Amino acid sequence: MSWSEKILRVDLGAGTCTSEPLNMEWAQDYMGQRGLATKYLVEETDPNVDPFSPDNKMIVATGPLTGTIAPTSGRWSVVCKSPLTGAIACSNSGGFFGGELKNAGWDMIIFEGKSDTPVYLDITNDQAELKDATDLWGKSVWETETTLRERRGDNDVRVASIGLAGENSVLYAAVVNDMDRAAGRSGVGAVMGSKNLKAMVVRGTVGVKVRDPMALMKTSNVAKEILAENAVTGEGLPTHGTQVLMNVINELGALPTRNGHDVQFEGAHDISAEAMAEPRESDGEANLVSNAACFNCPISCQRRSKIDPNHFTVKGKPEYQIVSGGLEYEAAWALGAACGVKDLDAVTYANFVCNEQGLDPITLGST
């Protein structure tokens, strides 16, 4: 395991950042980042707390394998009381932010209280500081991440932030990292916004330590071989992403369509993985530009997409005429089939806006 045995406690009201030891007994007894962070939340938070109260703690957690050579070890979670459900939220994300946080030497960050003014957390290894984010408040995720990278002068920093959705307490606001990876479910972005916390910036060069490096290497190599030989993780997901499910689930009669009124969508193929790879008649280019991988993930199921520059959604809007996070299956059915939309570029545009402003596309499309 790669526990750093150290957590960062950030008191937003007092403006302090304090290091404290990880409770290793809890780390052994509660499974992974979700189990451990939930244990901390339950122990430290009144179950009757208002999700938008300063007393609702927000925990950013990595797991015992995060940042290691284990495949798919880039995952991280945001845990708090959900404003959407009133239950415990555990929203998980990929990308590179989790691995960077662990490589900076931190297992978790516990945010408590509320800042009087907008702030962001700036971490470089064991140095952590709250900084003024007044100039960032009102900016999108994309603008915020770009600004903070330029401010740090280090393109290797990783950023997780909220957009207008989180600032305005949208109940399904997300925390977005690496421009288009998201802890998207249960409104964790709204809790972050309620604390006047705009972003987290982290750069980690400490590395991770594991108890038995050779055993981990051996086990990881076996796991990678299994993933490579499996038809889904070795071929289906790298080629088509989670969108490989669109036509399959539609044919099974289990595709949420037109707000749940139907179970099959006649336009499913038009917004499927296969359609993403087909050249458009308009400009001869495909919606899908490439696949991509999160931290140390051999599956590479991310989609990188570009919308036809002359499509009505982006014509005259150069900020959207870019290569960015393409459709996953969940966003495709929620923004596409569930809304009765079969225009692939229109659905992709809606997904771009969700990433830009920090919205959960699943809840948006199915609400």
From TrEMBL:
SUPFAM superfamilies: Aldehyde ferredoxin oxidoreductase, C-terminal domains, Aldehyde ferredoxin oxidoreductase, N-terminal domain
Pfam families per the UniProt record, alphabetical: AFOR_C, AFOR_N
Stretches assigned to the Aldehyde ferredoxin oxidoreductase N-terminal domain: 3-206
Required co-factors: [4Fe-4S] cluster
Keyword Transcription regulation appears in the UniProt entry: no
Keywords (A to Z) from UniProt: 4Fe-4S, Iron, Iron-sulfur, Metal-binding
Membrane-spanning intervals of the chain: none
Single GO MF descriptor: metal ion binding
Record's keyword annotation contains Translocase: no
Cross-referenced InterPro entries: Ald_Fedxn_OxRdtase_dom2, Ald_Fedxn_OxRdtase_N, Ald_Fedxn_OxRdtase_N_sf, OxRdtase_Ald_Fedxn_C, Tungsten_al_ferr_oxy-like_C, W-dependent_AOR
Record family assignment: Belongs to the AOR/FOR family.
PANTHER family: ALDEHYDE FERREDOXIN OXIDOREDUCTASE, TUNGSTEN-CONTAINING ALDEHYDE FERREDOXIN OXIDOREDUCTASE
Name of protein: Aldehyde ferredoxin oxidoreductase N-terminal domain-containing protein
